[in-house]
C-alpha cells in the first residue's frame, strides 16, 4: 500500500498507518475464536495541523471505530498511530494518559455521554481534576470561561443535564472536551441526534472554535452535506476501508470511486427544480457483513460497473494526482473514472 | 379533485403530571386522492401525533383528542366505534413507522404477521394470503421472498425490515398510506432505494401518501404539497415549488436557510435559527415562533396569527409574511 505522504512532517499532527481493528468472534464453552469482525481493515492517512478531515460512510463501515482506535479507546489489532512524533500505539499507562490531554472526543448522543447525576460544572471540571490542571477558584473560573466559549450562560454551572435540550447538552460535551486545552478533537456524529434548526448552531460553534483555538478535527458523520461544509479534506469509508480521499472540492466535483458517486447522488437537495432533473444512482442490495467481506474490491457486490478483476484483486489505494487517493480498478493513471477500462 | 382525507380543527392534549401538553393545536388540512403530502417539522412539532390522532392510535390516557373532525371517505374517523376503526386501519388506511424493529413482532415469522392482516381484511384463505404476501415482498424488492417469508424479523437487515413494513402496509391496497419517517433510521443509499419503491408503488396503485419527516430536503423530490408544523400548529402549507421558492413563514425560510446543500458554494457561516422550540406545557401567548423570529412585531407576541391564503393552495400563519424568495436570494448571493 502506498503511504500518503503529501505534507512535510512538521505540518502533520496525526499519522495513521495500516490501522486495523478486528473484533474476535468467540464461540462455545472454551470461547475459541471462530472468526473476526473486521471493523477497520488497513487505513492509512494523515491529518494536518489545523485542518478538518471528514470521515464519511454508512453505519457499520467502521468510521466510529476508526475514531476510537486513533484515541486508543479501542485497542488497534495492527498498525500505528503517530501523534506528532509520538507513537500512540506503543504507549500505555501513564505516558498514554498524559497524551490524552492533547486529544479529546465529542460523542454522538449527548443524552448518553453526560452523567445525569453530575452538575454541568462537575462534568466540565472533571477533566481538570483528573489532570490536576486547576483547583478551587481557578477551576471555577475555567468552567465559567468554557461555558461562555460554547455559548452557554455561566448560571448553568449548578444545573443538571436533564434540564437541557440536546443542542445545549452537546455544547456542554464540547466544553468538557475543550477543558484540558486539547490540540485534536474527534467529533463522532456530533449533530446527528439534534433537530435541524439546532444543528446549524452546533456546526457554527465547532467551526468558530477551530478558528479561535487552532484545533484540528477528525469529523465523523454519515451526512455528506454536513461533512462537505465543515471539512478541508474528506475520506470515504466502505466496509472497513477508505475507498477515496481527496480535498473537499475535488471529492464533490470529481468523485472517482463508484461508491462516492452513488453516495453523492443519493443525497436529496432541498430544491424541487434540481431534484426533478437529477439522475440518481440507486445501489442494489445491502452492505455485506464485515465478518466475511467480499473478495477483491469490497464494493464489487453492489457496484454497477464491476468487472472480473474487481471480484479477484483488491484495488490499490493510490494517489492519482494532487493528493486525490482512490482505490478502484476503473480509475486510470491520470485520475479519470472510465468504465471502459474493463473491456 | 376529490378529498380523500379532510382534517378540521384537530386538537390533541396529553394530560400529564407536569401539566397539559398542547400537542396538536387546531390543525386543519386535507389530502386529495392520489396525492403525496409531506408533513415536515422538528421533534415535538406534533407531526406524528397529528397523524396518530387521525388514526386513533394515541395512547389514552394520557392522550385525548379534545376537538375536531377527521373525515375519511365521507366518515368521521373520530366518531367511529373501535370495531369500525379496526376494520379501516391496515385496510383502507395504513401506517408505517420509523423503527421497523419495534413495530414488527420479534417472535412471529414474517409470514404470520403479513397473512394475519390479509386474511382478516380481505377474507382470503391462508394459502391465498401467503401467495399474496410473497408477491408483495417481491414487489418491494426482497430477493428470495418465497424463502425469506419464513424468517423472523431479526434475520433481516434494517433496510429489508423497512421493506417488510412497507409490504405489510400495502397488503390490503390502502387508499392512504401514512409513512412516519420510514427512512430516518436507514443509511442514505438504502434510503434512496425505499423512496424509489414507494414512488413506484404509488404510481402503480394510485394511492395517496402522507410522508412525515424532519428533513425538508427529502421532500423536494417526493411530495406534491407540503405542510410545515411548529409547536403543534400548521404554520405554512404550500404546493411543492411554492414552498421551496416562495416560502412566506419565517420558520420555513429559516429552515431552508439552515439546510446545507450539496450543490451550493460553501458558506462560511451557516445561518441558524436561534433559541429552542417552546414548551408545549406552558403554551406561549401569541405566535409560538415569535420568540425565535427575526421579523416579529409587537402583535406577534400577543395574538396568534390564523392561517391565511397568500396564493393558490398556499396558506401562512404569520402577521408579517416576509417574502421568502427575496431573503433566500439575498442569502445565496451573499455567500456565492
Automatic annotation (TrEMBL), chain A:
It holds the Pfam family oligo_HPY. PANTHER family: D,D-DIPEPTIDE TRANSPORT ATP-BINDING PROTEIN DDPF-RELATED, TRANSPORT ATP-BINDING PROTEIN. The keyword Nucleotide-binding applies. The keyword ATP-binding applies. Keywords: ATP-binding, Nucleotide-binding, Transport. This is Dipeptide ABC transporter ATP-binding protein. It comes from Gloeocapsopsis crepidinum LEGE 06123. Residues 14-264 form the ABC transporter domain. GO terms for molecular function: ATP binding. Belongs to the ABC transporter superfamily.
From TrEMBL, chain B:
It is a peripheral membrane protein. Residues 5-256 form the ABC transporter domain. InterPro entries: AAA+_ATPase, ABC_Ni/Peptide_Import, ABC_transporter-like_ATP-bd, ABC_transporter-like_CS, Oligopep_ABC_C, P-loop_NTPase. Pfam families: ABC_tran, oligo_HPY. It comes from the Bacteria. Keywords: ATP-binding, Cell membrane, Membrane, Nucleotide-binding, Transport. Its main location: membrane. One of its GO terms (molecular function) is ATP binding. It is found in: Cell membrane. Belongs to the ABC transporter superfamily. This is ABC transporter ATP-binding protein. It comes from Gloeocapsopsis crepidinum LEGE 06123.
